[in-house]
Design goal:
One of its GO terms (biological process) is CDP-diacylglycerol biosynthetic process. By secondary structure, the protein is mainly alpha-helical. The protein has two domains: 119 residues, no CATH class; 164 residues, no CATH class. A two-stranded antiparallel sheet has the order 1-2. Helix 2 crosses helix 3, helix 3 packs antiparallel against helix 4 and helix 10 packs across helix 11. It starts with a helix and ends with a helix. About 5% of the residues have low confidence.
Length: 317
């Protein structure tokens, strides 16, 4: 065999191996889509029902979600060995939305503040991260309650019911606002995942999250903005461009929340916050975008219409 023929065979073998490796990498990257889709469908159905039901049902949904989030936060910051105190804090934060829904936001706010202070009495190594996490998650919980609206206040129905759907008796501003938030945030996550895996390209911030790409960020912003805009156009009497700006802002803030959580995980050398959701990792991995997005959406609605009619302030301008 001549040297040229041998080189040609070597190049062919190398090319075949490279293609096989690329195919294996691609298959591995998409292998978790089945569990992701199934768990997402189940969670979506349960979430939509409890958000639509509102009141104590919505409070229970938030309590379960953030009880799980704080549990993962405790594990992530390395506080597993302080289990009794950590479990007490988890129970306490689960009570924040219940108390806020039944007795009013002021009591929920006091419980959130008290829990953050109590967190400072734990192990010195964890107290700052514990207190900071408890305070932040409590703020998100109360923001979500105010976006959805709670049943303990007396209110003018026109502030809470979408006029075009009032005859249905089921669709209020609070439900629409939660749907807007969920559609924007989770379609941002989905768009970022799909676009990042398909287009790949330059890394967004490899020091914080090696897997995130600019193509994923742009894909997430596009899909999240369009999804939020669709909800806004359906329920809002206001100009469409306002909905586009709000949805785009929430999408960007959601991606910031994702990056912040990635930075914290890298600080504590943790890959996933947990494994509560098949194919998705932990609750915190799925809620990181929602936390930042909810706080921004609450601020927008409260600035426009006041803290007691937040949802209406999101749609009516």
């Amino acid at each position: 065999m001549s040297k040229n023929e041998q080189d040609s065979e070597n190049n062919l073998a190398s090319s075949t191996a490279s293609q096989a490796e690329k195919a294996e990498t691609t298959a591995r990257a998409w292998s978790d889509m089945g569990p992701r889709l199934i768990s997402a469908a189940v969670l979506l159905a349960v979430t939509i029902f409890m958000v639509w039901a509102g009141g104590i049902w919505f409070a229970l949904l938030v309590a379960l979600a953030f009880g799980g989030v704080l549990r993962e936060w405790e594990a992530m910051i390395g506080a597993r060995q302080n289990r009794p105190f950590g479990m007490f804090l988890i129970a306490l934060i689960a009570l924040v939305p219940i108390v806020g829904s039944v007795w009013g936001i002021a009591f929920g706010l006091m419980m959130g503040g008290a829990g953050a202070i109590i967190s400072l009495f734990g192990h010195a190594k964890f107290r700052v991260w514990r207190a900071g996490g408890f305070l932040f998650f409590s703020a998100v919980i109360l923001a979500l309650l105010l976006i959805r609206g709670i049943d303990t206040w007396s209110f003018d129905a026109s502030d809470y019911v979408v006029s075009d759907f009032a005859s249905w008796g089921i669709v209020g501003w609070g439900f629409a606002a939660c749907f807007f938030l969920g559609a924007t945030v989770w379609m941002t996550d989905t768009g970022a995942l799909l676009a990042g895996r398909y287009f790949r390209g330059a890394k967004l911030n490899p020091e914080i999250s090696p897997a995130k790409t600019w193509s994923g960020a742009i894909g997430g912003l596009t899909s999240g903005t369009l999804s939020g805009l669709l909800v806004f156009v359906i329920v809002s009497p206001s100009p469409w461009w306002i909905g586009m700006l709000i949805a785009a802002s929430v999408s960007v803030f959601g991606q910031m929340g994702d990056l912040v959580e990635s930075a914290i995980k890298r600080h504590f050398r943790v890959k996933d916050s947990g494994d509560a959701i098949p194919g998705h990792g932990g609750l915190l991995d799925r809620m990181d975008s929602l936390t930042f997005g909810a706080l921004l959406l609450f601020a927008i609605g409260a600035i426009n219409s006041g803290s007691q009619v937040v949802a209406r302030g999101i749609f009516v301008w």
